[in-house]
């Protein structure tokens, strides 16, 4: 199957699999995403056995070059979410 799994499709799959309404499935899916986001925003890590780990990666401040003007510029430090797939997930997609 080469289709894209988006939130709407995920809600439909959860509703059908759990035999619940799409409204309740949407609440469940939203809750999972909100908790992952909240945990990462607070500096925590999310470890879902058999799926993978979500954590925050910190990028230090660094110097870059504006490609249009070739002038050096300072790129501010930032944080970005990072995902590392679990062994079971890696094996499943081989």
Automatic annotation (TrEMBL):
PANTHER family: DNA-BINDING PROTEIN HU, DNA-BINDING PROTEIN HU-BETA. GO terms for molecular function: DNA binding; structural constituent of chromatin. Belongs to the bacterial histone-like protein family. GO terms for biological process: chromosome condensation. InterPro entries: Hist_DNA-bd (IPR000119), Histone-like_DNA-bd_CS (IPR020816), IHF-like_DNA-bd_dom_sf (IPR010992). The keyword DNA-binding applies. This is Transcriptional regulator. Pfam families: Bac_DNA_binding. Gene3D superfamilies: IHF-like DNA-binding proteins. CDD domains: HU. Keywords: DNA condensation, DNA-binding. PROSITE patterns: HISTONE_LIKE (PS00045).
């Amino acid at each position: 199957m080469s289709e894209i799994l988006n939130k709407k499709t995920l809600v439909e799959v959860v509703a059908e699999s759990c035999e619940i309404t799409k409204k309740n499935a949407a609440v469940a899916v939203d809750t999972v995403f909100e908790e992952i986001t909240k945990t990462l925003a607070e500096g925590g890590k999310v470890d879902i056995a058999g799926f993978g780990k979500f954590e925050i990666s910190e990028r230090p401040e660094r110097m870059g070059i504006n490609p249009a003007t070739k002038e050096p510029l300072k790129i501010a430090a930032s944080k970005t979410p990072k995902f590392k797939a679990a062994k079971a997930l890696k094996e499943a997609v081989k």
